[in-house]
Amino acid sequence: MNHNLSHLHSYPFAKMNSLLADSIANTACSEIKLGIGEPKHPPPSFVLDVLQQNLDRFNRYPTTEGLFELRQTIAHWLEKRFFLRHVNAHQQVLPVMGTREAIFSLVQAVVNHGENHTLEPVVVMPNPFYQIYEGATILANATPYFVPCTFENNFKGDYRAVPIEVWSRTQLLFVCSPNNPTGSMMSLDDWEFIMRLSDKYGFIIASDECYSELYFDQPPIGLLQACTSFGRDNYKNCIVFHSLSKRSNLPGLRSGFVAGDADILKSYLQYRTYQGCAMPIPHQLASIAAWQDEKHVAHNRALYKEKFALWMEELGELLDLRMPDAGFYFWIKVPPLFAGDDEAFVTALYEEANIHALAGRYLSREVNGKNPGQGYVRIALVASVSESREAISRIRNMITKD
What we know:
It contains 14 helices and twelve strands. By secondary structure, it is of the alpha/beta class. It folds into two domains: about 5-40 and about 295-400, Alpha-Beta Complex (Aspartate Aminotransferase, domain 1); about 45-295, Aspartate Aminotransferase, domain 2 (3-Layer(aba) Sandwich), CATH 3.40.640. The chain has a seven-stranded mixed sheet, sandwiched between helices. Helix 8 (about 225-230) links the parallel strand 6 (about 205-210) and strand 7 (about 240-245). Helix 3 (about 70-80) runs parallel beside helix 11, helix 4 crosses helix 10 (about 260-275) and helix 12 runs parallel beside helix 14. It is globular, with a radius of gyration of 21 Å.
């Protein structure tokens, strides 16, 4: 077996299961799941119709690069959404079976242990983070470097504080904007700074933008959009990940794409022809329909906006709630009643209110003796508006009972 498997952390939800193994939920209340970021809004019916109408296409092997019609649809969506001058559908777009596997496989494809790379490769990532960044890095036999996202740096991470010796070994930088779990967004100045670092040290910037369509007023600035703003239409050393999971409430479709630097994607496509993760043709046709429609996305945003407003209005004075820039998570500071103990808070939510949440420490790693996720809890506003009202009522009762 790969010896690096022993270095992997348990997944956050496995840690939660262990934490609650001896706990008993309050069965007088119905279960409300706010721990996993799995959208619960109904998927668009017209997308499901396309899938149903093309079930006979499952008798054909899909190609790794996908249908040109899908790549072209994605290219047009990118151009319109991010004000890009031109995206080459042949060379700068690649459909993938969900961004989770794409993020993992990209790391395996780009980390280089060759003769010209004598130093141990480093992959830089935010902290807290999506755990696939770390796991993919470890299994690529590289070293993760964690940039703490804290209140002091607006939960974005201070890349200016990363030592030069780390950048000199860095081959890949992960950025998540809007961030999971903190909800922070990169500004144009932030993008410019890390692009200048990339130019100087030659590393790839991989931007996870899976929450980019869940915003309140101002759409997040994407990495490719920043490239265009600075006249970098070849997107050199820049890669973005997008998905239909959050945007269109289709997590089970496993449909996303990678776009950006054509040279990187050319080699990555070759890697993927061996890996074998090609999207089934019915999924591709359904994806075309989803990417071509914005009405259902606007409706989706409106539902999340309603729920955030409800939580802020009803619990804003009782909990340290901070409105995220975008996304569907609250990154909540643990109330004083629980003395900053995120594990104690999520255990109480489960035992007293039958609400599932996620301890922040499970999404983070300790850096210089401090875990930036400790003392925080992630709440995913994925449940219905009515369930949200019920969850708010239970939490209010729980923290005011004395």
